[in-house]
Amino acid sequence: MKFYVRTWDLAPAPTTTGVTMAPAEPAKRRSTGGRSTNRSASGETRHRSGKGGAAWAMRAAAEQLQELLGRSPESVSALKPTDDGWEADVEVLELERVPETTSVMASYRVTLSKEGDLMAYERTRRYTRGQIDRRG
Description:
Blueprint: E1 8-9, E2 37-39, E3 45-47, H1 54-69, E4 73-82, E5 85-95, E6 104-113, E7 118-128
Antiparallel strand pairs: 1-4, 2-3, 4-5, 5-6, 6-7
């Protein structure tokens, strides 16, 4: 089974006044659809198997990669569940240049366990921000 995930920006958008606003809180689910759940210490709902949803996995991949690299991820461009957890492609600004279209970006493949722990990561690609992806 394949999942296609749209790229989501991880940084909050600046307002017209130049002040950055905090991201909106996610909508709360009314029912669990018959599945048993529990809440983590941070209040996030997780299924008892330890496997959260796609949004949870995207945040976990981006946050843990940021801790290791010391750079803020720009977006998560792909996400898919695996037998052992999740696999995500995270886009990171590696070298900022002027103009922005010449900045160097990198794609990292991040592997998470079912509990959301980062198990492995690797840089799979480096490219300039203005580059068009010509892969089929």
